[in-house]
Protein backbone atom coordinates (compact mmCIF):
# COMPACT_ATOMS: atom_id res chain seq x y z
CA UNK A 1 0.00 0.00 0.00
CA UNK A 2 1.30 3.43 -0.93
CA UNK A 3 -0.03 5.66 1.85
CA UNK A 4 -1.82 5.78 5.20
CA UNK A 5 -3.65 8.81 6.52
CA UNK A 6 -3.48 8.82 10.32
CA UNK A 7 -5.80 10.82 12.56
CA UNK A 8 -5.80 10.72 16.35
CA UNK A 9 -8.82 12.07 18.22
CA UNK A 10 -10.29 12.14 21.67
CA UNK A 11 -13.71 12.12 20.01
CA UNK A 12 -14.74 15.56 21.23
CA UNK A 13 -14.60 17.46 17.96
CA UNK A 14 -17.95 17.91 16.32
CA UNK A 15 -16.15 18.30 13.00
CA UNK A 16 -14.56 14.81 13.22
CA UNK A 17 -17.06 13.09 10.92
CA UNK A 18 -16.56 15.66 8.19
CA UNK A 19 -12.79 15.52 8.66
CA UNK A 20 -12.88 11.75 8.15
CA UNK A 21 -15.17 12.02 5.14
CA UNK A 22 -12.71 14.39 3.42
CA UNK A 23 -9.93 11.83 3.86
CA UNK A 24 -12.13 8.99 2.54
CA UNK A 25 -12.96 11.03 -0.56
CA UNK A 26 -9.40 11.55 -1.77
CA UNK A 27 -8.94 11.40 -5.53
CA UNK A 28 -6.03 8.98 -4.98
CA UNK A 29 -6.63 5.34 -6.20
CA UNK A 30 -8.71 3.73 -3.40
CA UNK A 31 -6.61 0.57 -3.25
CA UNK A 32 -3.47 2.69 -2.86
CA UNK A 33 -4.30 4.20 0.54
CA UNK A 34 -6.05 3.70 3.85
CA UNK A 35 -7.41 5.92 6.62
CA UNK A 36 -6.69 5.06 10.26
CA UNK A 37 -8.59 6.80 13.02
CA UNK A 38 -7.23 6.20 16.53
CA UNK A 39 -9.66 7.12 19.30
CA UNK A 40 -7.99 8.08 22.55
CA UNK A 41 -10.11 6.92 25.49
CA UNK A 42 -13.52 6.90 23.78
CA UNK A 43 -15.91 4.56 22.01
CA UNK A 44 -16.36 4.34 18.25
CA UNK A 45 -19.06 6.84 17.20
CA UNK A 46 -22.13 5.41 15.47
CA UNK A 47 -21.49 7.12 12.15
CA UNK A 48 -18.17 5.24 11.67
CA UNK A 49 -19.87 2.06 10.46
CA UNK A 50 -21.89 3.96 7.83
CA UNK A 51 -18.73 5.73 6.60
CA UNK A 52 -16.89 2.40 6.49
CA UNK A 53 -19.65 0.91 4.30
CA UNK A 54 -19.54 3.85 1.91
CA UNK A 55 -15.75 4.18 1.79
CA UNK A 56 -13.95 3.08 -1.36
CA UNK A 57 -10.63 2.77 0.51
CA UNK A 58 -9.79 0.83 3.67
CA UNK A 59 -11.00 2.66 6.80
CA UNK A 60 -9.96 1.39 10.19
CA UNK A 61 -10.99 2.65 13.61
CA UNK A 62 -8.84 1.74 16.62
CA UNK A 63 -10.12 2.41 20.14
CA UNK A 64 -7.32 2.89 22.66
CA UNK A 65 -7.43 3.46 26.42
CA UNK A 66 -6.78 7.14 27.20
CA UNK A 67 -3.01 7.63 26.95
CA UNK A 68 -2.70 10.94 25.18
CA UNK A 69 -2.29 12.16 21.62
CA UNK A 70 1.29 10.95 21.12
CA UNK A 71 0.45 7.37 22.11
CA UNK A 72 -2.56 7.39 19.76
CA UNK A 73 -0.52 8.68 16.81
CA UNK A 74 2.16 6.06 17.50
CA UNK A 75 -0.50 3.36 17.61
CA UNK A 76 -1.78 4.53 14.22
CA UNK A 77 1.74 4.62 12.84
CA UNK A 78 2.45 1.05 13.96
CA UNK A 79 -0.90 -0.32 12.77
CA UNK A 80 -0.65 1.31 9.35
CA UNK A 81 0.40 -0.50 6.16
CA UNK A 82 1.29 2.44 3.91
CA UNK A 83 4.79 3.24 2.73
CA UNK A 84 4.05 6.90 3.45
CA UNK A 85 2.32 8.24 6.56
CA UNK A 86 0.31 11.47 6.27
CA UNK A 87 -0.87 13.01 9.55
CA UNK A 88 -4.05 15.01 9.79
CA UNK A 89 -6.19 16.03 12.75
CA UNK A 90 -9.77 15.79 13.91
CA UNK A 91 -10.46 19.46 13.17
CA UNK A 92 -8.80 19.62 9.75
CA UNK A 93 -10.66 19.60 6.43
CA UNK A 94 -8.61 18.66 3.39
CA UNK A 95 -9.14 18.97 -0.38
CA UNK A 96 -9.51 15.77 -2.51
CA UNK A 97 -6.04 16.08 -4.07
CA UNK A 98 -4.09 16.46 -0.81
CA UNK A 99 -2.75 12.92 -0.70
CA UNK A 100 -1.67 13.16 -4.33
CA UNK A 101 0.47 16.18 -3.52
CA UNK A 102 2.11 14.48 -0.56
CA UNK A 103 2.80 11.26 -2.48
CA UNK A 104 4.25 13.29 -5.34
CA UNK A 105 6.57 15.12 -2.93
CA UNK A 106 7.56 11.81 -1.34
CA UNK A 107 8.52 10.39 -4.74
CA UNK A 108 10.45 13.50 -5.68
CA UNK A 109 12.24 13.83 -2.31
CA UNK A 110 12.50 10.37 -0.79
CA UNK A 111 13.84 10.37 2.75
CA UNK A 112 12.54 13.87 3.45
CA UNK A 113 9.58 15.20 5.32
CA UNK A 114 6.91 17.19 3.45
CA UNK A 115 4.48 19.65 4.95
CA UNK A 116 1.86 22.08 3.75
CA UNK A 117 0.10 25.13 5.19
CA UNK A 118 -2.78 24.89 7.65
CA UNK A 119 -4.98 27.94 7.23
CA UNK A 120 -7.87 28.91 9.46
CA UNK A 121 -11.17 27.81 7.97
CA UNK A 122 -13.99 30.27 7.23
CA UNK A 123 -16.24 27.76 8.97
CA UNK A 124 -14.50 28.38 12.30
CA UNK A 125 -16.44 29.71 15.26
CA UNK A 126 -16.89 33.47 14.76
CA UNK A 127 -14.94 34.93 17.64
CA UNK A 128 -11.81 36.85 18.55
CA UNK A 129 -10.16 33.53 19.49
CA UNK A 130 -10.41 32.43 15.85
CA UNK A 131 -9.09 35.75 14.64
CA UNK A 132 -6.17 35.57 17.08
CA UNK A 133 -5.27 32.07 15.84
CA UNK A 134 -5.64 33.19 12.23
CA UNK A 135 -3.28 36.14 12.80
CA UNK A 136 -0.69 33.92 14.42
CA UNK A 137 -0.79 30.68 12.41
CA UNK A 138 -1.74 31.82 8.93
CA UNK A 139 0.89 34.56 8.95
CA UNK A 140 3.47 32.04 10.15
CA UNK A 141 2.74 29.75 7.22
CA UNK A 142 2.33 32.40 4.57
CA UNK A 143 5.35 34.49 5.55
CA UNK A 144 7.83 32.81 7.90
CA UNK A 145 7.69 29.32 6.51
CA UNK A 146 7.51 30.40 2.93
CA UNK A 147 10.67 32.47 3.26
CA UNK A 148 12.52 29.62 4.95
CA UNK A 149 11.15 26.84 2.81
CA UNK A 150 14.36 26.21 0.93
CA UNK A 151 16.32 25.20 3.98
CA UNK A 152 13.31 23.51 5.53
CA UNK A 153 11.77 24.42 8.81
CA UNK A 154 12.21 22.09 11.71
CA UNK A 155 9.10 23.20 13.57
CA UNK A 156 6.74 22.29 10.79
CA UNK A 157 6.16 18.91 12.32
CA UNK A 158 4.43 20.81 15.09
CA UNK A 159 1.39 20.57 12.88
CA UNK A 160 -0.70 18.07 10.96
CA UNK A 161 -0.56 18.08 7.14
CA UNK A 162 2.89 16.51 7.35
CA UNK A 163 4.05 13.33 5.63
CA UNK A 164 7.14 11.13 5.64
CA UNK A 165 8.20 7.55 5.09
CA UNK A 166 6.49 5.45 7.75
CA UNK A 167 9.52 3.17 8.16
CA UNK A 168 11.75 6.19 8.68
CA UNK A 169 9.43 7.64 11.35
CA UNK A 170 9.33 4.31 13.17
CA UNK A 171 13.10 3.84 12.91
CA UNK A 172 13.51 7.30 14.46
CA UNK A 173 11.59 6.16 17.54
CA UNK A 174 8.22 7.79 16.70
CA UNK A 175 6.66 10.35 19.07
CA UNK A 176 7.85 10.68 22.67
CA UNK A 177 4.74 9.63 24.59
CA UNK A 178 5.85 11.42 27.76
CA UNK A 179 5.14 14.71 25.96
CA UNK A 180 1.51 15.66 26.40
CA UNK A 181 1.89 18.82 24.35
CA UNK A 182 4.53 19.59 21.73
CA UNK A 183 5.11 15.88 21.13
CA UNK A 184 5.07 16.70 17.42
CA UNK A 185 7.53 19.59 17.70
CA UNK A 186 9.79 17.39 19.80
CA UNK A 187 9.73 14.69 17.12
CA UNK A 188 10.30 17.26 14.38
CA UNK A 189 13.32 18.62 16.19
CA UNK A 190 14.69 15.10 16.72
CA UNK A 191 14.27 14.32 13.02
CA UNK A 192 15.90 17.62 12.10
CA UNK A 193 18.89 16.86 14.31
CA UNK A 194 19.16 13.43 12.69
CA UNK A 195 19.68 15.18 9.37
CA UNK A 196 16.19 14.81 7.88
CA UNK A 197 15.26 17.84 5.77
CA UNK A 198 11.78 19.27 5.29
CA UNK A 199 10.09 20.20 2.01
CA UNK A 200 7.41 22.89 2.05
CA UNK A 201 4.41 22.30 -0.24
CA UNK A 202 2.69 25.71 -0.47
CA UNK A 203 -0.15 24.27 -2.60
CA UNK A 204 -1.01 21.38 -0.27
CA UNK A 205 -3.28 23.55 1.88
CA UNK A 206 -5.72 22.24 4.48
CA UNK A 207 -8.14 24.22 6.61
CA UNK A 208 -8.35 24.21 10.36
CA UNK A 209 -11.81 24.63 11.85
CA UNK A 210 -11.25 26.53 15.09
CA UNK A 211 -13.74 25.76 17.84
CA UNK A 212 -11.67 26.90 20.82
CA UNK A 213 -13.18 29.40 23.23
CA UNK A 214 -11.19 32.46 24.32
CA UNK A 215 -10.95 31.04 27.85
CA UNK A 216 -9.45 27.77 26.61
CA UNK A 217 -7.08 29.43 24.16
CA UNK A 218 -5.75 32.09 26.54
CA UNK A 219 -5.98 29.96 29.69
CA UNK A 220 -5.63 26.19 29.77
CA UNK A 221 -3.95 25.77 26.38
CA UNK A 222 -1.50 28.63 26.93
CA UNK A 223 -0.52 27.19 30.32
CA UNK A 224 0.10 23.74 28.81
CA UNK A 225 2.10 25.29 25.98
CA UNK A 226 4.33 27.06 28.52
CA UNK A 227 4.97 23.78 30.30
CA UNK A 228 5.56 22.02 26.99
CA UNK A 229 8.17 24.54 25.80
CA UNK A 230 10.18 24.14 29.00
CA UNK A 231 10.10 20.35 28.72
CA UNK A 232 11.16 20.62 25.11
CA UNK A 233 14.12 22.82 26.08
CA UNK A 234 15.13 20.36 28.77
CA UNK A 235 15.21 17.55 26.25
CA UNK A 236 16.70 19.64 23.40
CA UNK A 237 18.67 22.59 24.81
CA UNK A 238 19.47 23.70 21.24
CA UNK A 239 15.78 24.56 20.91
CA UNK A 240 16.06 27.24 23.64
CA UNK A 241 16.81 30.10 21.29
CA UNK A 242 13.77 29.38 19.11
CA UNK A 243 11.28 29.46 21.96
CA UNK A 244 9.26 32.39 23.20
CA UNK A 245 10.43 31.74 26.78
CA UNK A 246 13.15 34.40 26.55
CA UNK A 247 10.50 36.98 25.64
CA UNK A 248 9.70 37.65 29.29
CA UNK A 249 13.01 39.48 29.70
CA UNK A 250 13.29 40.99 26.23
CA UNK A 251 13.03 44.67 25.37
CA UNK A 252 12.78 47.82 27.46
CA UNK A 253 13.04 47.44 31.25
CA UNK A 254 9.68 49.10 31.86
CA UNK A 255 7.96 46.59 29.58
CA UNK A 256 9.78 43.72 31.29
CA UNK A 257 8.70 44.95 34.72
CA UNK A 258 5.07 45.28 33.57
CA UNK A 259 5.12 41.81 32.00
CA UNK A 260 6.56 40.28 35.15
CA UNK A 261 4.03 42.07 37.34
CA UNK A 262 1.24 40.74 35.18
CA UNK A 263 2.53 37.17 35.35
CA UNK A 264 2.95 37.45 39.14
CA UNK A 265 -0.56 38.80 39.56
CA UNK A 266 -2.14 36.60 36.89
CA UNK A 267 -5.34 35.95 38.85
CA UNK A 268 -5.88 39.67 39.32
CA UNK A 269 -5.09 40.43 35.68
CA UNK A 270 -7.48 37.67 34.65
CA UNK A 271 -10.27 39.12 36.83
CA UNK A 272 -9.99 42.37 34.87
CA UNK A 273 -9.12 41.08 31.41
CA UNK A 274 -11.53 38.16 31.22
CA UNK A 275 -14.79 40.20 31.28
CA UNK A 276 -13.13 42.92 29.19
CA UNK A 277 -12.22 40.36 26.48
CA UNK A 278 -15.74 38.95 26.48
CA UNK A 279 -17.11 42.43 26.01
CA UNK A 280 -14.64 43.13 23.22
CA UNK A 281 -15.68 39.84 21.59
CA UNK A 282 -19.32 40.91 21.61
CA UNK A 283 -18.42 44.30 20.10
CA UNK A 284 -15.72 43.01 17.72
CA UNK A 285 -17.36 44.61 14.68
CA UNK A 286 -15.89 47.93 15.88
CA UNK A 287 -12.28 47.91 14.60
CA UNK A 288 -10.67 49.62 17.62
CA UNK A 289 -12.51 47.31 20.05
CA UNK A 290 -11.45 44.28 18.00
CA UNK A 291 -7.80 45.37 18.12
CA UNK A 292 -8.01 45.94 21.88
CA UNK A 293 -9.65 42.53 22.34
CA UNK A 294 -6.92 40.77 20.35
CA UNK A 295 -4.27 42.53 22.41
CA UNK A 296 -5.97 41.46 25.63
CA UNK A 297 -6.04 37.84 24.41
CA UNK A 298 -2.29 38.09 23.76
CA UNK A 299 -1.68 39.41 27.29
CA UNK A 300 -3.80 36.65 28.83
CA UNK A 301 -2.12 34.04 26.65
CA UNK A 302 1.37 35.20 27.67
CA UNK A 303 0.37 35.42 31.32
CA UNK A 304 -0.75 31.78 31.39
CA UNK A 305 2.03 30.64 29.10
CA UNK A 306 4.71 31.98 31.46
CA UNK A 307 2.88 30.67 34.51
CA UNK A 308 2.95 27.21 32.93
CA UNK A 309 6.65 27.60 32.15
CA UNK A 310 7.45 28.75 35.68
CA UNK A 311 5.46 25.84 37.13
CA UNK A 312 7.42 23.40 34.96
CA UNK A 313 10.73 24.98 36.11
CA UNK A 314 9.70 24.58 39.75
CA UNK A 315 10.09 28.22 40.81
CA UNK A 316 10.39 31.75 39.52
CA UNK A 317 14.11 31.74 40.35
CA UNK A 318 14.72 28.54 38.39
CA UNK A 319 12.82 30.01 35.44
CA UNK A 320 14.85 33.21 35.67
CA UNK A 321 18.17 31.34 35.85
CA UNK A 322 17.25 29.08 32.95
CA UNK A 323 15.49 31.43 30.55
CA UNK A 324 15.32 35.05 31.70
CA UNK A 325 18.95 36.08 32.34
CA UNK A 326 19.91 39.55 31.12
CA UNK A 327 23.57 40.11 30.40
CA UNK A 328 25.17 43.56 30.49
CA UNK A 329 28.31 43.80 28.35
CA UNK A 330 30.60 46.67 29.33
CA UNK A 331 32.87 48.21 26.71
CA UNK A 332 36.23 49.72 27.62
CA UNK A 333 38.88 50.73 25.13
CA UNK A 334 42.20 51.97 26.50
CA UNK A 335 42.82 52.11 30.24
CA UNK A 336 45.24 54.98 30.86
CA UNK A 337 45.57 58.75 30.97
CA UNK A 338 43.55 60.52 28.29
CA UNK A 339 45.53 62.34 25.58
CA UNK A 340 44.50 65.71 24.13
CA UNK A 341 42.22 65.37 21.10
CA UNK A 342 41.19 61.84 22.00
CA UNK A 343 37.65 60.51 21.49
CA UNK A 344 35.95 60.88 24.89
CA UNK A 345 35.04 57.19 25.36
CA UNK A 346 38.40 55.85 24.19
CA UNK A 347 40.20 56.15 27.52
CA UNK A 348 39.25 55.46 31.10
CA UNK A 349 41.87 56.20 33.75
CA UNK A 350 43.30 53.47 35.91
CA UNK A 351 41.70 54.92 39.04
CA UNK A 352 38.28 55.18 37.37
CA UNK A 353 38.41 51.58 36.25
CA UNK A 354 39.49 50.58 39.74
CA UNK A 355 36.36 52.35 41.11
CA UNK A 356 34.16 50.48 38.60
CA UNK A 357 35.66 47.07 39.34
CA UNK A 358 35.53 47.57 43.11
CA UNK A 359 31.86 48.60 42.83
CA UNK A 360 31.02 45.55 40.69
CA UNK A 361 32.78 43.24 43.14
CA UNK A 362 31.17 44.81 46.20
CA UNK A 363 27.71 44.50 44.65
CA UNK A 364 28.04 40.83 43.79
CA UNK A 365 28.53 41.06 40.01
CA UNK A 366 30.40 38.12 38.49
CA UNK A 367 32.42 38.59 35.35
CA UNK A 368 31.86 35.81 32.84
CA UNK A 369 33.48 34.89 29.54
CA UNK A 370 31.75 34.95 26.17
CA UNK A 371 32.08 31.14 26.15
CA UNK A 372 30.05 30.95 29.37
CA UNK A 373 27.34 33.11 27.80
CA UNK A 374 27.32 30.90 24.70
CA UNK A 375 27.05 27.76 26.84
CA UNK A 376 24.02 29.27 28.63
CA UNK A 377 22.47 30.43 25.37
CA UNK A 378 22.94 27.15 23.55
CA UNK A 379 22.51 24.56 26.27
CA UNK A 380 21.34 26.28 29.43
CA UNK A 381 24.60 25.74 31.36
CA UNK A 382 24.01 27.71 34.59
CA UNK A 383 25.59 31.13 34.97
CA UNK A 384 26.80 32.65 38.25
CA UNK A 385 24.42 35.18 39.85
CA UNK A 386 24.53 38.73 38.41
CA UNK A 387 26.68 37.94 35.39
CA UNK A 388 28.51 40.72 33.53
CA UNK A 389 30.80 40.53 30.51
CA UNK A 390 33.68 43.02 30.30
CA UNK A 391 35.11 43.80 26.87
CA UNK A 392 38.15 45.87 25.87
CA UNK A 393 38.21 46.98 22.22
CA UNK A 394 41.24 47.36 19.95
CA UNK A 395 43.79 45.57 22.21
CA UNK A 396 45.85 48.52 23.52
CA UNK A 397 49.27 47.47 24.88
CA UNK A 398 48.81 49.78 27.86
CA UNK A 399 45.98 47.55 29.16
CA UNK A 400 48.47 44.78 29.87
CA UNK A 401 50.27 47.07 32.33
CA UNK A 402 47.37 48.26 34.51
CA UNK A 403 43.98 46.95 33.41
CA UNK A 404 44.66 43.21 33.15
CA UNK A 405 46.47 42.86 36.51
CA UNK A 406 43.66 44.89 38.10
CA UNK A 407 41.00 42.61 36.56
CA UNK A 408 42.94 39.61 37.88
CA UNK A 409 43.08 41.16 41.34
CA UNK A 410 39.29 41.22 41.43
CA UNK A 411 38.98 37.74 39.93
CA UNK A 412 37.52 39.20 36.70
CA UNK A 413 38.20 38.36 33.06
CA UNK A 414 37.84 40.47 29.95
CA UNK A 415 37.21 39.80 26.28
CA UNK A 416 39.75 41.80 24.31
CA UNK A 417 39.04 42.48 20.64
CA UNK A 418 42.24 42.49 18.58
CA UNK A 419 42.85 44.02 15.13
CA UNK A 420 44.98 41.21 13.80
CA UNK A 421 46.99 43.00 11.06
CA UNK A 422 48.01 45.66 13.59
CA UNK A 423 49.20 43.46 16.45
CA UNK A 424 52.41 44.98 17.88
CA UNK A 425 51.84 48.17 15.82
CA UNK A 426 49.58 51.19 16.37
CA UNK A 427 45.93 52.21 15.90
CA UNK A 428 46.40 53.63 12.41
CA UNK A 429 42.64 53.65 11.70
CA UNK A 430 42.30 56.41 14.35
CA UNK A 431 45.65 58.15 13.96
CA UNK A 432 45.10 58.53 10.20
CA UNK A 433 41.99 60.49 11.14
CA UNK A 434 44.07 62.84 13.29
CA UNK A 435 43.53 61.13 16.64
CA UNK A 436 46.46 60.22 18.97
CA UNK A 437 48.55 57.14 18.21
CA UNK A 438 48.78 54.28 20.72
CA UNK A 439 50.78 51.07 20.88
CA UNK A 440 48.75 47.85 20.41
CA UNK A 441 49.31 44.42 21.97
CA UNK A 442 51.71 42.08 20.20
CA UNK A 443 50.98 38.45 19.38
CA UNK A 444 53.26 37.55 22.29
CA UNK A 445 51.14 39.74 24.65
CA UNK A 446 47.97 37.99 23.41
CA UNK A 447 49.54 34.58 23.98
CA UNK A 448 50.69 35.50 27.52
CA UNK A 449 47.35 36.98 28.58
CA UNK A 450 45.34 34.16 27.03
CA UNK A 451 47.43 31.78 29.17
CA UNK A 452 46.49 33.96 32.16
CA UNK A 453 42.76 33.54 31.59
CA UNK A 454 41.93 36.60 29.43
CA UNK A 455 39.69 35.94 26.45
CA UNK A 456 40.23 37.28 22.94
CA UNK A 457 37.97 38.10 20.02
CA UNK A 458 38.60 39.20 16.48
CA UNK A 459 38.10 42.89 15.71
CA UNK A 460 38.81 42.30 11.97
CA UNK A 461 42.17 42.48 10.17
CA UNK A 462 42.36 46.24 9.60
CA UNK A 463 39.49 47.93 11.50
CA UNK A 464 37.54 48.98 8.36
CA UNK A 465 33.99 50.30 8.06
CA UNK A 466 32.54 46.88 7.22
CA UNK A 467 29.20 48.03 5.70
CA UNK A 468 31.20 49.99 3.08
CA UNK A 469 33.10 46.88 1.87
CA UNK A 470 32.10 44.30 -0.75
CA UNK A 471 30.87 40.89 0.43
CA UNK A 472 34.19 39.29 -0.52
CA UNK A 473 36.17 41.89 1.43
CA UNK A 474 33.93 41.45 4.50
CA UNK A 475 34.35 37.68 4.29
CA UNK A 476 38.12 38.13 4.14
CA UNK A 477 38.18 40.46 7.18
CA UNK A 478 36.11 37.94 9.15
CA UNK A 479 37.84 34.72 8.16
CA UNK A 480 41.45 35.86 7.86
CA UNK A 481 41.42 37.69 11.21
CA UNK A 482 40.22 34.57 13.01
CA UNK A 483 42.88 32.45 11.27
CA UNK A 484 45.65 35.03 11.98
CA UNK A 485 44.76 35.22 15.66
CA UNK A 486 45.03 31.46 15.81
CA UNK A 487 48.26 31.31 13.82
CA UNK A 488 50.06 34.18 15.56
CA UNK A 489 48.90 33.72 19.15
CA UNK A 490 47.41 30.22 19.26
CA UNK A 491 44.01 31.65 20.19
CA UNK A 492 40.86 30.27 18.57
CA UNK A 493 38.12 32.81 19.14
CA UNK A 494 34.41 32.32 18.58
CA UNK A 495 33.46 35.99 18.90
CA UNK A 496 33.73 38.97 16.61
CA UNK A 497 33.50 42.66 17.53
CA UNK A 498 32.29 44.93 14.70
CA UNK A 499 34.79 47.79 14.15
CA UNK A 500 33.15 51.12 15.13
CA UNK A 501 30.13 48.95 16.10
CA UNK A 502 29.04 49.19 12.45
CA UNK A 503 27.12 46.40 10.74
CA UNK A 504 24.22 45.73 8.40
CA UNK A 505 22.19 42.61 7.55
CA UNK A 506 24.80 41.29 5.12
CA UNK A 507 27.69 41.81 7.56
CA UNK A 508 25.72 40.08 10.35
CA UNK A 509 24.88 37.20 8.07
CA UNK A 510 28.55 36.76 7.16
CA UNK A 511 29.60 37.00 10.82
CA UNK A 512 27.21 34.15 11.61
CA UNK A 513 29.09 31.92 9.16
CA UNK A 514 32.46 32.44 10.86
CA UNK A 515 31.62 33.07 14.53
CA UNK A 516 29.09 32.15 17.19
CA UNK A 517 28.73 35.64 18.72
CA UNK A 518 29.23 39.17 17.39
CA UNK A 519 29.19 42.42 19.36
CA UNK A 520 27.80 45.80 18.28
CA UNK A 521 27.89 49.12 20.12
CA UNK A 522 24.08 49.29 20.30
CA UNK A 523 23.16 50.01 23.91
CA UNK A 524 21.04 47.59 25.94
CA UNK A 525 21.12 44.22 27.67
CA UNK A 526 21.23 40.75 26.14
CA UNK A 527 18.91 37.81 26.67
CA UNK A 528 17.78 34.50 25.22
CA UNK A 529 15.51 36.19 22.69
CA UNK A 530 18.21 38.55 21.35
CA UNK A 531 20.23 38.01 18.19
CA UNK A 532 23.64 36.52 19.12
CA UNK A 533 25.16 38.35 16.14
CA UNK A 534 23.86 41.70 17.37
CA UNK A 535 25.02 41.56 20.96
CA UNK A 536 24.37 44.86 22.69
CA UNK A 537 27.03 46.67 24.73
CA UNK A 538 27.27 49.54 27.18
CA UNK A 539 30.13 51.94 26.51
CA UNK A 540 31.90 52.99 29.70
CA UNK A 541 33.48 56.43 29.86
CA UNK A 542 35.77 58.34 32.20
CA UNK A 543 32.82 60.33 33.59
CA UNK A 544 30.83 57.27 34.64
CA UNK A 545 30.29 57.11 38.39
CA UNK A 546 29.07 53.95 40.17
CA UNK A 547 25.53 55.37 39.91
CA UNK A 548 25.91 55.67 36.10
CA UNK A 549 27.21 52.12 36.05
CA UNK A 550 24.25 50.93 38.12
CA UNK A 551 21.80 52.49 35.67
CA UNK A 552 23.55 51.02 32.64
CA UNK A 553 24.00 47.57 34.06
CA UNK A 554 20.48 47.14 35.44
CA UNK A 555 18.38 49.11 32.94
CA UNK A 556 20.55 48.76 29.85
CA UNK A 557 20.53 52.54 29.51
CA UNK A 558 21.55 55.56 31.52
CA UNK A 559 18.79 58.17 31.87
CA UNK A 560 21.17 60.63 33.60
CA UNK A 561 23.65 60.79 30.74
CA UNK A 562 20.77 60.78 28.22
CA UNK A 563 19.30 63.85 30.00
CA UNK A 564 22.77 65.47 30.03
CA UNK A 565 23.14 64.93 26.31
CA UNK A 566 19.70 66.39 25.64
CA UNK A 567 20.48 69.45 27.77
CA UNK A 568 23.82 69.98 26.04
CA UNK A 569 22.12 69.75 22.65
CA UNK A 570 19.43 72.17 23.75
CA UNK A 571 22.00 74.73 24.98
CA UNK A 572 24.06 74.41 21.83
CA UNK A 573 21.01 75.06 19.61
CA UNK A 574 20.12 78.08 21.80
CA UNK A 575 23.69 79.38 21.42
CA UNK A 576 23.63 79.10 17.65
CA UNK A 577 20.08 80.47 17.61
CA UNK A 578 21.28 83.67 19.23
ZN1 LIG B 1 37.65 49.36 17.53
Structural notes for this entry:
With 578 residues, this protein is of the alpha/beta class. The chain has three domains: 3-210, Spore Coat Polysaccharide Biosynthesis Protein SpsA, Chain A (Alpha-Beta Complex); 220-323, no CATH class; 329-567, Glycoside hydrolase/deacetylase (TIM Barrel, Alpha-Beta Barrel). The protein has 21 helices and 20 strands. Strands 3-2-1-4-8-6-9 form a seven-stranded mixed beta sheet, sandwiched between helices. Strands 11, 14, 15, 16, 17 and 20 form a six-stranded parallel beta sheet that branches. A three-stranded mixed beta sheet has the order 5-10-7. Strand 1 (3-9), helix 1 (16-24) and strand 2 form a beta-alpha-beta unit. Helix 8 packs parallel to helix 11. It is elongated, with a radius of gyration of 29 Å. The mean pLDDT is 90. Zinc ion binds next to strand 15.
**Structural classification:** alpha/beta
- In CATH terms, the superfamily of the largest domain is Glycoside hydrolase/deacetylase
- Strands, count: 20
Strand content: 5-15%
CATH third-tier fold name of the largest domain: TIM Barrel
Largest sheet: 7 strands, mixed
Write the CATH architecture name of the largest domain.
Answer: Alpha-Beta Barrel
Provide the number of structural domains: 3
| Count of alpha and pi helical runs | 21
Give the integer mean of the pLDDT values. 90
Describe the global form. elongated
What is the radius of gyration? 29 Å
The spatial strand order of the largest sheet comes to: 3-2-1-4-8-6-9
pLDDT < 50 stretches: none
Estimated helix fraction: 40-55%
